[in-house]
């Protein structure tokens, strides 16, 4: 290769082949080294790798390569999260079969990942749409069923009447289906559920043990699980004539302390009482329909205006039998939570307040800050929702007056229990996981419906239940449903005519256990426990924050369910989690507002921007997440083609901490590319200076200086990589490169033997330091420096301790025993000089004031004490 120009086109495939031949990334369990399992969230095979993938997998690859060099047996696998809607959309839009579309995409993307030089153990690759994978998923589902972790129940879903399918809440946008644009309806369907709520408490507690997870992710999970402690109690109901209603009405409250501020009772529109009343009352029925149109997402419900309808019922206040509370059906009360019914206390709950203002209901404050006189305690537009403070006191509340809200909660709970109308209860916001999807491209749910026997699990020996391939997508709805033969089977129990379940699994199931399958991807059972015991947990999981809740929670649930059914030995699959930031790019528009891709934007000398094809004026917009709709996408394939994999990797690691957003710029990638070229020239120049075979006995000051710089950089870069601060590691390597080239410039003409030796040492260290980031360039440089064998197989270097020792020391300064200042001095500075410096310092002078200094005691290397009287 030319010494002036680094040819990545030649180098990158060459080293990729060499690593592969050396079995560099292949992981095996029979190994004495400690293990390290690094995993990045596997991609959906959409067709092409995007910059988010490049960032994610580069982070993981740096760690994988570094850990190998540190003597770990590293597992770094890759697979495909391959079921899902886009394949079916492609089938509908382009007429290509989802299977072909998916596997073609996988083939293309695999090539892209290989070209990026990621050290992945491809022998473990699988796609979740491989029957070899999903058959185990089906088997585990049957085991979960036996263990009581599966339930079939009716539930409300978002129904798209045009596409004839259930939509996830995220697929409902402003009340309409995201694809069809049709108004979404709520429907009640029989669905399969995984009982994640069985583990609600354990999933919550487990978070405390996850020391290496970001706090914000744990917080999101805690909120999602949403544990609340409260009281469930029942109201006596009366009809409009004052006659007692046959049953009492249970409600759940976290604020029993506010019971004397209650001014109404509200039921969900789907509450059985409301349903019954709607049969006789057209207005109530109409209100129910209106609520149904709101969709099932909590967000939609939260945003909607609070509305209700008066029911012909009143509720008797539990502690004031003469007070009757009006009963409403209200759109903000959910059927799936608590009892689907509440009492409303407008003064201390915002939704209740909005509702009360709208319907002219009383607002009675019952909690008041202690310093405010009770008669001054007024509620405006904002409810007073705090109940924890000890500076709060109960008012307008009969026997509770004077207590803190916390004490009042206790007192009400106690009395209600005594009266036999209620008990303390813990509720979770977490709902069971509905896993049925009316889709073709997913894992078939392995059950059969028999008119005689009911739901019959598919016998394990009949697994996998595979998808039929001869399906059509020309009509809306589920192709499995209308396939002529697929669903018709004999009942495994009675042998009679029966039908297969035509729903498939939510694809989140596929990604809830893939990490365990990677330990033994070819095993006969879902997971080979011996191998899982060796590899699990994942030591470092890396992925996007968008998966902070569902994917991670489902994975944590699956691990528990697998443990309880003997498929895994631990509950927490991911010991450490890192969430990377997004990749952003500036957006551009024409004056008429059309988005323009960055490649079509030219810049004139005066800085103004123009469209390179049309000459139109271009306006630069905000820096935003790369997205197709705004055309600010940079295709990694083009970058790798133009600059090579190492440049792409190096740039994406630089500039920003990996957990922050990263702005991709043309100037930045150019800069990274120039650096690769500069390093290459520098290494070749160094190679021309033959070093002595033996390490020199002594080093000149200049050489010693460079050695210190190199070893200190090594120490810092090592620490940065350990802490995943890759951008700082990059910055330090730049610094070291500058130090090396300065040294070269000053000494190139008359290089002494110790200097040549030092240069080679520094160059080798630098190359090793950037080898996890730019592995191809590193191998090429390693060779140019006359080193034998693959650098990838070398151990990570250790810095020499003596070279790390600081020449300076920081001394704290005390004046009369109180710390006032500190000073940095050379270690060799004599005490008299230190003393003189200390006494000149402003902070010291101020502390001494008009007293006079009696003594200065210096404990060498530790502290300076000034005694003044
Ligand atoms: C009376 C009350 C007074 C309430 C007050 C709050 C403040 P979390 O923390 O989410 O558990 N609630 C209960 N069931 C509900 C349902 N199905 N749909 C909508 N809201 C429901 O909140 C529990 C509180 O949310 C309960 O406490 C109840 O309102 C309401 F000053 O009861 B509260
Ligand atoms: Zn049967």
Task: Briefly say what this structure is.
With 869 residues, the chain is an alpha+beta fold.
So what's the oligomer here?
single chain
Structural class: alpha+beta
Percent strand equals 15-25%
Number of helices: 27
For the termini, the CA-CA separation is 75 Å
Describe the largest sheet: 7 strands, mixed
Radius of gyration based on Cα positions: 34 Å
- The helix content is 25-40%
Low-pLDDT sequence parts: none
Number of strands: 34
Q: What is the arithmetic mean of pLDDT?
A: 95
- The shape, in one word, is globular
| Chemical compounds bound to the protein | ligand ANZ, zinc ion
How would you describe this protein?
The structure is a single chain. Helices cover 36% and strands 21% of the residues. Helix 2 packs across helix 19, helix 18 packs across helix 19 (645-653) and helix 21 packs parallel to helix 23. The longest helix has 23 residues, at 666-688. The chain has 27 helices and 34 strands. The strands form 9 sheets. Strands 8, 9, 10, 11, 12, 13 and 16 form a 7-stranded mixed sheet that branches. It has a 5-stranded mixed sheet with strand order 27-28-29-26-30, with helices on one face. The protein has 869 residues and is an alpha+beta fold. Strand 3 and strand 4 (165-167) form a beta hairpin. The model has no long low-confidence stretch (mean pLDDT 95). The structure holds ligand ANZ and zinc ion.
């Amino acid at each position: 290769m030319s010494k002036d120009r680094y040819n990545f086109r030649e180098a990158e495939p060459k080293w990729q082949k060499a690593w592969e031949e050396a079995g560099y990334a292949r992981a095996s369990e029979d190994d004495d080294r400690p293990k390290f399992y690094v995993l990045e969230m596997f991609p959906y095979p959409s067709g092409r790798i995007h910059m988010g993938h490049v960032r994610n997998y580069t982070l993981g690859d740096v760690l994988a390569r570094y850990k190998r060099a540190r003597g770990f047996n590293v597992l770094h696998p890759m697979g495909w999260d391959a079921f899902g809607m886009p394949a079916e959309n492609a089938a509908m839009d382009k007429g290509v079969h989802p299977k072909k579309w998916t596997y073609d995409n996988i083939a293309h993307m695999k090539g892209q990942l290989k070209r990026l030089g990621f050290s992945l153990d491809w022998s473990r690759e699988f796609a979740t749409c491989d029957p070899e994978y999903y058959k185990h998923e089906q088997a585990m589902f049957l085991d979960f069923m036996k263990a009581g972790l599966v339930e079939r129940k009716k539930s409300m879903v978002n129904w798209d009447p045009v596409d004839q399918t259930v939509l996830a809440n995220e697929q409902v946008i402003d009340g309409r289906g995201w694809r069809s644009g049709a108004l979404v309806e709520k429907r009640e369907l029989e669905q399969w559920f995984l009982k994640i709520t069985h583990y609600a408490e354990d999933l919550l507690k487990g978070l405390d043990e996850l020391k290496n997870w970001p706090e914000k992710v744990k917080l999101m999970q805690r909120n999602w699980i949403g544990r609340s402690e409260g009281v469930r109690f029942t109201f006596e109901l009366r009809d409009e004539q004052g006659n007692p209603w046959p049953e009492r009405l249970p409600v759940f409250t976290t604020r029993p302390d506010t019971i004397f501020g209650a001014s109404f009772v509200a039921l969900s529109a789907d509450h059985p009482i409301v349903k019954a009343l709607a049969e006789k009352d057209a207005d109530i029925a109409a209100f129910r329909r209106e609520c149904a149109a709101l969709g099932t997402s909590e967000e939609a419900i939260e945003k909607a205006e609070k509305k209700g309808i008066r029911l012909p019922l009143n509720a008797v206040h539990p502690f004031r039998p003469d007070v009757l509370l009006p009963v409403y059906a209200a759109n903000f009360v959910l059927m799936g939570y608590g009892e689907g019914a509440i009492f409303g206390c407008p003064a201390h709950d915002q939704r209740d307040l909005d509702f009360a203002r709208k319907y002219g209901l009383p607002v009675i404050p019952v909690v008041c800050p202690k310093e405010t006189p009770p008669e001054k305690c007024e509620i405006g537009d904002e409810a007073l929702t705090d109940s924890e403070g000890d500076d709060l006191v109960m008012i307008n509340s009969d026997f509770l007056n004077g207590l803190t809200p916390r004490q009042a909660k206790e007192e009400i709970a106690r009395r209600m229990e005594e009266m036999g109308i209620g008990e303390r209860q813990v509720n979770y916001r977490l709902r069971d996981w509905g896993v049925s999807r009316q889709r073709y491209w997913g894992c078939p749910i392995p059950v059969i419906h028999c008119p005689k026997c009911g739901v019959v699990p598919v016998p394990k020996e009949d697994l996998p239940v595979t998808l039929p391939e001869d399906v059509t997508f020309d009509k809306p709805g589920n192709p499995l449903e209308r396939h002529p033969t697929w669903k018709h089977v004999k009942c495994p129990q009675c042998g009679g005519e029966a039908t297969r379940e035509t729903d498939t699994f939510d694809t989140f199931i596929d990604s809830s256990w893939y990490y365990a399958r990677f330990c033994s991807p070819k095993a006969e059972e879902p997971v080979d426990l011996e191998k899982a015991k060796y590899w699990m947990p994942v030591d470092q999981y890396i992925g996007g924050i968008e998966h902070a809740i569902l994917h991670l929670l489902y994975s944590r649930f699956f691990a528990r369910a697998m443990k309880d059914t003997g498929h895994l030995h631990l509950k927490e699959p991911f010991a450490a989690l890192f969430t990377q930031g997004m990749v952003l790019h500036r957006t551009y528009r024409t004056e008429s507002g059309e988005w323009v891709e960055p490649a079509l934007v030219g810049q004139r000398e005066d800085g103004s921007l123009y469209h390179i094809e049309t000459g139109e004026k271009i306006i630069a917009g905000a820096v935003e997440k790369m997205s197709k709709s705004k055309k600010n996408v940079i295709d990694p394939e083009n970058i790798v083609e133009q600059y090579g994999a190492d440049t792409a990797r190096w740039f994406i690691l630089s500039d920003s901490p990996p957990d922050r957003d990263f702005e991709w710029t043309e100037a930045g990638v150019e800069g990274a590319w120039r650096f690769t070229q500069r390093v290459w020239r520098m290494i070749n120049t160094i190679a021309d200076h033959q070093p002595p075979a033996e390490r020199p006995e002594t080093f000149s000051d200049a050489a010693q200086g460079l050695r210190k710089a190199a070893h200190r950089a090594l120490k810092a870069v090592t620490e940065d990589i350990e802490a995943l601060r890759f951008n700082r590691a990059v910055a330090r390597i730049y610094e070291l490169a500058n130090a090396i080239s300065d040294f070269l410039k000053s000494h190139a003409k008359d290089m002494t033997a110790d200097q040549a030796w030092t240069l080679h040492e520094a160059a080798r260290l630098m190359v090793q330091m950037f080898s996890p980031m730019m592995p191809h360039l590193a191998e090429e440089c390693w060779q140019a420096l006359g080193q034998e064998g693959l650098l990838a197989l070398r151990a990570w270097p250790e810095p020499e301790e003596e070279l790390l020792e600081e020449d300076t020391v920081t001394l704290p300064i005390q004046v009369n025993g109180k710390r006032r200042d500190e000073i940095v001095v050379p270690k060799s500075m004599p005490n008299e000089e230190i003393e003189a410096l200390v006494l000149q310092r402003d902070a010291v002078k101020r502390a001494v004031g008009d007293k006079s200094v009696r003594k200065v005691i210096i404990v060498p290397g530790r502290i300076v004490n000034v005694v003044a009287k």
